[in-house]
Structure formats: C-alpha cells, structure tokens
Amino acid sequence: MADRTGAPNTVEHFDDGTHPEFYYPPQELVEHSNVMAYAREKGYSTFEELYQWSIQHPQDFWSDMATRFVDWYAPYQQVLDDSNPPFFKWFTGGKINVVHNAIDRHANGPNRDKVALIWESEQGEAKRYTYADLEVEVNRFANVLKSQGVKKGDRVTVYLSRVPELVIAMLAIVKLGAMHSVVYGGFSIDALHSRIVDGQSRVVITGDGGWMNNKIVELKNITDGAVDRAADLVERVIVVRRTGHDIAMHAGRDLWYHELAARPGMDAPCATEQMDAEDPMFLLYTSGSTGAPKGLLHTCGGYQVQVATTLHFTFDIKPDDVYWCTADPGWITGHSYIVYGPLMLGATQVIYEGAPSYPDPGRWWSVAEKYGVTIIYTAPTAVRALMRFGDAIPAKYDLSKLRLLGSVGEPINPEAWRWYYRVIGQERCPIMDTWWQTETGAFMITPNPTTPLKPGSGTKPFLGIECDVLTEEGKPAGQDDDGLLVVKKPWPSMLRTIYGDPERYKETYWSRLPGFYTAGDAARRDEHGYYWVIGRIDDVIKVSGYRLGTAEVESALVSHPAVAEAAAIGLPHELKGNAIHTFVILRQGFEPSDDLENELRKHVGKEMGPIARPESISFVPGLPKTRSGKIMRRVLKARALGLPEGDLSTLEG
Ligand code: PRX
User: How sure is the predictor about 652, in pLDDT bands with cuts at 50, 70 and 90?
Assistant: First the structure.
C-alpha cells in the first residue's frame, strides 16, 4: 500500500496493456511515435528509461534538443548558467532568432511551398499561406514597423482579433529584435491600458474590429480608450483592416497598415536580427495575487528550444499532419503552440477566427473535416460546452483523420475527458492533457503518445523536467495527499523575470519553498506517480480556462462610483470550471437593486472584458477581514459552499 513518506517518482510495471484503470494508446501509434524513435536512438526501449536518463543528464538532453530542432547563427558556450539563482540563463553565448527557425529556413528550403497556415474566417472564407508567402508577409510587416521607428529592444503592444495578421505581426516584431506584448482581443480598456503603460510601448498594433459570433468586436474603440489615457507615451497606432466598418482615425497618431504597406520599399527583404540567447523576446501579462500587471518575460534561446521539443514529442508532429490549436494567439498557448512551435517544426496548421458554435455547434467539427485535421488541441471548457449539444452533431462529420487530441488550461473533468475520447477521438486518439503555465512557456507535465492515460490526470513530467508535490514545510507529500506543485530544476523556457520587478519574480515564484519553483497550483500524486492538478492556491480564478485575478475584478468594481469595497471569489461552475462571484459594499446614498447589479456586471465587463463579468453580485454590509484589513476570501468561499469556515483566529475582533 501507500508509502506515506512520499509518492513514487517512477512507475512500476503497470503498463502491460491490461490494467483496467488505464486507457492505452494504439500500439501502432506507440511504435511510430517520435518519442519512441528518440528512445531507440538513445538505446532505450521505453519512455520511462529515456525519462530517467533525461533527468539524470538534463543539460545533455536539452543540448541535444537545441541542436536538433533549431538553428543557431553562432553556437552557445554554456547550456545552463545557474550561478545566480533564480535568475537562470540558458544557451549563453548563442546567437539565434525564432523567425529564422520558424520562417526563413523553411521559406528557403524544401518546405518553401508547403502550406503553413490555413485560416478560416467566421463567415467561411479561407486563406492559405505557404512558408514562402509568410516570409513575404513577415518581411513587409517588419519593414512597416521599421519605417515607424521600431527597433531592437522596443516593446510593441498588439491588440488584434484572431486574424493571420496577428501571427504575422508577432513574427515581424521578433524579426526586428523588438518584443511583443500581445493583449488578448477579448480584454477591455483597463487591461489594455495598464499593459501598454507597464511595457512602455510607443507603438500599438490593432484592428478596426474583429468578428466573433457574427458581431463586431470594437477593437479600435477600445484601443482609443486605452491609448487616449496614455497619450504621452503612444506615438503610433497601426490599424489592420478586417471588418471595414467606420472607425475614427486620430490624425497624426493612427495609420492604416495597408496604406503603410503599399509605400515604396516595403516589399524588400528585411534582415532577421541576430539575438543573444538571453535577449528578451516577448512580454506576456498574466494575473497574479495583486492588481498590478505582471509582465512575464521570456527570452530568445531556451523558449524556442523547449517549445519545439515539447510539440515534437507530445503532439508527435509528422510532415503530413494538419494541426489545429483552437487557442487565441494572444495567450501563451497560442504564442507557443500556434505562432512559434508548429512553424518551427515546418507543420501545416489551421486557425479558425470565430466562435465554436457559429453558426451552429457543428462548426468546429466541420472545420476539422474540411481540412483533414489530424491533431486538435483545445480547452476543457470548450469540450464541456460542445458536449452539451450531444453526440449526434459531431457524428455528422468525418473525423476519421484525427489521431491525437489535446487539452490545456484547467483540470479536465473525467466526464468531459471520456466524451472527448469517445465521441471526438472515436476511442482511437489519446488525449494529451498538458499542464503548464504562462510562466513555464512550454509543457511541463504531459502524456506523450506512448503513455497509458487516466482521465483527468496530466500523467507525468516531460523529458528533462523534474516536478514534485510538497507540503507547506517542503517535505514530499504522501501518496494521494494534496500538496504544492513545484518544479525542482530550471528549464529552458522558464520565465526569466517579471518585467521591471525582479524582486517580485523572486518573491512570487521562489520564496515559498526556497530552492523550488512554486507554481501556484495544488496537486497530488497517485500510486503510479501520476499527477492530478487540483487548482490554484492563490487568488487567481480560472474562468473557462482564462486566468483572472480576484484583485483585478475587485478594482474594476471599486472604480464604479456606487462601490465602496468589493471582494471576488471563484466558485465551481459546470461549463466554465469556475465562475466569479462578488460581494459589494455600497457607498452611502446607493441602494441595492437589480438595475444596479446589472450595471455593475456590465461595468466590470467594460473595464476588463466580457470574460470577467461576474456571475453574481451580492450586496453586503461588511466583509470578513484579517486584523490587518485583508479580505478573507476563503471565508466567503466556505460560506458560499456551506463548508466549515476553518480557523478564523486572524479575523478582526
Ligand atoms: O492552474 C493551472 C491551470 O492553468 C494555470 C496556468 O494558467 P495560464 O498561465 O493562463 O496558462 C494556461 C495555458 C498553459 C496553471 O497554473 N492549468 C493549465 N493547464 C492545466 C491546468 N490545470 C490542470 N490541468 C492542465 N492540463
């Protein structure tokens, strides 16, 4: 039985193909998988043996990957510099640019005429870009940015809908050695404004609008709201035309992309900047425990090595695969596994612009059928939403080309897992339940095509990655006991710092259990060493897989004149995973009413974006607080769930 001193790190011989708890991958898939090919090459016959080697010699493993999947302009001198933890450096001395690896080398090699990107609009229009086409588009966009003064080291904020120009703009920015800071097109004025200011972006790229559910998302209006508040900073707004509807253009500040691109010289080749491995590549903002924006910084070398490696082994990309990640390029999933990973590997991928259920809930499956998609990577919330419409809808489409499925963003509940496996994957396609974070840059805990699966578990760490589940005291948690999920050693695609705030980086990720990276997640490990992520232990709420901070929701509420104080908590929700519930103390002179509740919900939506609109607002006379005045959200949560309120000794007297 369980060894209470710690869960096993390795799996014993359970994988004889008959254990009732597991879903086994088809033998043929295992035999032909990229990971087995690599194991054989290294002289091993199982993934487990390969994994053990990779964690005993992580630098050899990552160095091997760094020479296999990416090209360097100049070789690195050191694989890992760990002389100043937690400020780790990878592949120091190396010169590299992801745009060379994702575009230039393919456009000038055998993949030149291969389709890189198939884009389908919500209205059903399709555009195809070969690697050669992408090279032309990226050069043009980079020339336009250069003509507007963008240069190495600058930060450029990108706020676009899911159009090819989003991918092209990101690549163009990185080509010049500048950093992109992409803000998801579903966010609103406040979120966009704070990110532009924190990153000090002089140039913002946006669109006139985007399409979602046959409605126009007013990207330019929102951009104006954000940029008007940062008038001293933002010199140029470049506007990509998508919807063609009327928008205001601010003379002297706003320019149309298509007009700039038509100027002489914009079609000329544009050199790809040779970057140091540790030069910054991009900023991506994410929610944490405070309301202040947290710009996570990723760098050029290690990031691309781990992204390419994980995609190759986990999703087993082969030359004739048609890969589709349904995320938005504006999130880390889209950065790593739409914009950079698939292109580095020379793959063909699909991007669909709009809503999964437009014009009907069969839309995704029709996209998969139409383009012969072989791999789908999506989020549990989408699976749950589509599952609601029943089995008959996907059954109308030919999904026989699918060979692998993926899940990311939150724990997938076993019921949704089984539906996805049975109805979409037709019991033939293993599900890669990938655990990772904006901070980690790439997969950390994930199955691969050889892994026996358990619905709801991300299974075990990726090659070269060591994780653990520890108690608050830093001891290994017992088998099946909840604990803190940690990463034990640095990894190439890790965040390097929080932009402009290295102390906060140390404090947030490396101080709770010194020497370990704490992920902010609780997890447990079972008798087979499989990890089960339970959820966040901080004040982050995962709503439909989107990461939102309670502090951000609260500050949006408090920015309304009727609100004196507010608290936000997450409670379980059948479709969204979690939903935001809020408690509000009104200012004098305001009375609770349904109208006010609606107005406040709308207000949060306007400030932060529709995703943050609270599920409920309760008007309360007071909030439980600690003696130092901190709101005790766990008490609110316990009350709402009808659970014991726990130790309340620190409540105010
Ligand atoms: O709580 C974990 C959850 O998402 C968090 C990271 O969120 P974000 O930075 O927005 O990145 C999402 C895309 C990588 C994690 O701390 N999470 C992500 N993937 C999983 C997951 N929880 C359980 N299982 C997963 N596969």
Answer: very low
- Which atom of ligand 1 lies closest to the CA of 411? 23
Q: Mention every residue, 6+ apart, whose C-beta is less than 8 A from residue 86.
A: 490, 505, 506, 509, 510, 517
What residues pair up with 563 in beta bridges, in sequence order? 586
User: For the chain, percent helix, then strand, then coil, each to nearest 5?
Assistant: 30, 25, 45
Give the residues surrounding ligand 1 with Cβ less than 6 Å away.
286, 332-333, 407-411, 433-438, 458, 519-521, 533, 536, 542, 547
Q: Atom 26, ligand 1: which residue's CA is nearest? A: 435
Dist. CA 99 → ligand 1 center (Å): 27
At residue 648, the pLDDT reads: 56
Residue pair 196/227 in contact (Cβ under 8 Å)? The answer is: yes
Q: Which amino acid is at 574?
A: E
Please, are residues 182 and 161 in contact by the beta-carbon 8 Å criterion?
no
- Asked if residues 351 and 170 have their Cβ atoms less than 8 Å apart, the reply is no
Mutating to test ligand 1, I would choose from 547, 576, 578, 611 the residue with most ligand atoms within 8 A of its C-beta, which is 547
Contact call for residues 281 and 179 (beta carbons, < 8 A): yes
Block residue for tokens 């336009």: 144
* Sequential DSSP letters for 495-528: --EETT-HHHHHHHHHTTTTTSEEEEEEEEE-TT
Cα radius of gyration (the chain): 24
Q: What is the pLDDT of residues 555-565, one digit of tens each?
A: 999 999 999 99
What are the two backbone dihedrals, phi and then psi, of residue 103, each rounded to the nearest 5 degrees?
Answer: -125, -65
Taking only the tens place, the pLDDT of each residue in 242-272 is 999 999 999 999 999 999 999 999 999 999 9
Place of tokens 């490396």: 510
* pLDDT at residue 13 is higher than 50: no
Question: What kind and span of H or E run contains 633?
Answer: helix 633-641
Predicted pLDDT at 649: 53
How far away, in angstroms, is 86 Cα from ligand 1 center?
22
